[in-house]
Amino acid sequence: MSIKVELQTQSQPGPGTQVAPSWPMLRTLAGIAILSGLLVVLVYQATKPIITENERILTEQAVFEVLPGAVSKVDFVLTEQGLAPAGEGAVGMAVFVGFGADAELRGVAFPGAARGYQDVIQFLFGYDPACECIVGSKVLRSTETPGLGDKIDTDPVFLENFVALDASLNPAGTALANPIVLVAHGTKTAPWQIDGISGATISGKAMARAANDAAERFVPSIRRDLAKLAAAAP
């Protein structure tokens, strides 16, 4: 009798013993995980067209913000061969050519991006071939700290840097004559420098890198294909 009681006691799990989940429980958990994943995919597929359309509208509005005097635009893409009209099978990065009411070329808007404090910040810059300078900037997407990092898109004094930021090319027309850089507040001495802003140093440096890299990428092609762009007036 004592042996029987001992065997029964050993078969019972102790207070701290973890009991392995049964097959029905595992099956239920797996089903929940699969269903959750499916719902995430369905929500993503359903909202993706809406997000894409909202981004298109935001970018289109930004084009006219960064190109003063522009009232219409024609879309181009930057390919390995140069700038080509969008929608003709050309694949590349989007470029937006702005025209005034008189159908004269007002400038070209192109994208830029660089990592800030939180994440990658996406910009749109406006370039005027007449002055060979960046004449506008707009943050398209950012997760920077409100009230600090977002000053690069809201502070009017800082945005004065982008009224006529020098983006002229070297004599060969292959790269910027001078790199666009951020300098400490109050120490700006050259037209290709960006006067820093207090409380947003990291974001300001990101904006300078984005402007410099974008100008290096797009401006040489813009200069080469300027006649083609001007002739595309709607």
From TrEMBL:
Example GO biological process: electron transport chain
Source superkingdom: Bacteria
Domain FMN-binding: 116-218
Keyword annotations of the record: Electron transport, Flavoprotein, FMN, Membrane, Phosphoprotein, Transmembrane, Transmembrane helix, Transport
InterPro entries to which the protein is assigned, alphabetical: FMN-bd, Ion_transpt_RnfG/RsxG
Gene Ontology annotations for the cellular component aspect, listed alphabetically: plasma membrane
GO MF term list: electron transfer activity; FMN binding
Annotated transmembrane regions: 25-44
PANTHER family, per the entry: ION-TRANSLOCATING OXIDOREDUCTASE COMPLEX SUBUNIT G
Protein name: FMN-binding domain protein
Lineage: Bacteria, Pseudomonadati, Pseudomonadota, Gammaproteobacteria, Chromatiales
